[in-house]
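Feature request, filed as a ticket because there's no other form

It would be nice if the structure record came with a short human-readable summary line next to the tokens. Right now we just get the raw output. Example of a typical job, pasted below so the devs can see what we mean:
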Amino acid sequence: MEVGPNETAPMTEKDPAADETEMSVSWLLFRPRQLLMSLPVEHRWEFTRRHPYYLTYWQLAKRRHEQPSSDPAERMLEDGAVIILQSIGVAESAVPDDPHLGPEALGSRDFGGVWTSGAVAPAMLRTLAVILMGALPASQRGQLGALLSESEKYASQDDEQMTEIVRRLLRLPDDAWNSFPDIPFISINLEQSQRAITDAVEALVRQWKEQRNIAERRRRDDKLDLYLRAWDAREGWVGGEYDATREMTFQQIARETGDGIDTVISRYRTAFKYLSGHEYTPALWLRLMGPLKLSRYRGSQAGQGSVMHRPWRSPKPRPVAASVLLRGRKEYDGQGFLAAAGVTSSDIDLVEMMIDIETLVARGQSNSEIIDSLELSPAAVEQLGGLIDAIRERHEAR
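Raw output as currently delivered:
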């Protein structure tokens, strides 16, 4: 599902998750593609299926692929869901899988399963097409398009006609046709020895990494399951969903595993980075996980066991212009896109309230002081229920 062998982005294309500034927009937290692609395939899936955006939007995105709605407002929700999943590395062409499925249930083409050890994959025809569109100048794309259109009249086995079209392509004079794409892409001469091929690929990879300032690093795949176990125990992830009754404190996890509490916290925070794409802070946890984990306190009483997840979409979404949903536009940060994706103003207000409460808890304020600082009315306090206590518990739990 991630941008991979079936949907490789050209190196010259601006990635919306390319830098920290663009990732830190008002609502969405983008996960850099590079971070996801550094993981083995099975762990790409494990960290993605736990992501709150995935849990919220996978069904809408799946419906967009399999049976898109004829209703304009619902269609906007579906389109917005696909784009939001793209922001965490799920390819636009992918049909999302059920988060209850473990990696053993995924096929060879599910979530990048075609990658060998997460590092090498045969290039799909879609990949080749994307590379050509990103690498060729406009006039050369037009020439190629004309030849492809002409070739559709013939079967691939029509050697005489197809060979003539290929010859015309090879005779095109512009130097652009003899240039190399600015993306790691190779042809392999299988008549050479495997050792010669391996040595040549190693030299090319070293050169490409140096050119792009990509540091060589040792993968610690053996640690990834430990990170997931710490995350699952702290957040109550069981069987493909979050259960508030299964959440444990860091102290409880340390006692159960026999690990030091600092080790448990470090593993949990590393898991947060792989899941979210960001270093852990309480405010980022609230932005990412708060709507999923703490919205049960809104209009309810603290102490209720199960997570009462309220979907991030309004009952009657307002249609917006399709251009608002285009990937990479600044409208990612605006109300138009969020409305199209079903994020309501009350959702945003709740998260901002959570972050304010966390800040005041960190300053040592009591509940009554927090209520005064935020100038909350009695009705608001009653509506928020145990939210302040829940955030304080998260803040203080060790």
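Something like this underneath would help us a lot:
Residues 186 and 201 are 8 Å apart (CA to CA).
The radius of gyration is 25 Å.
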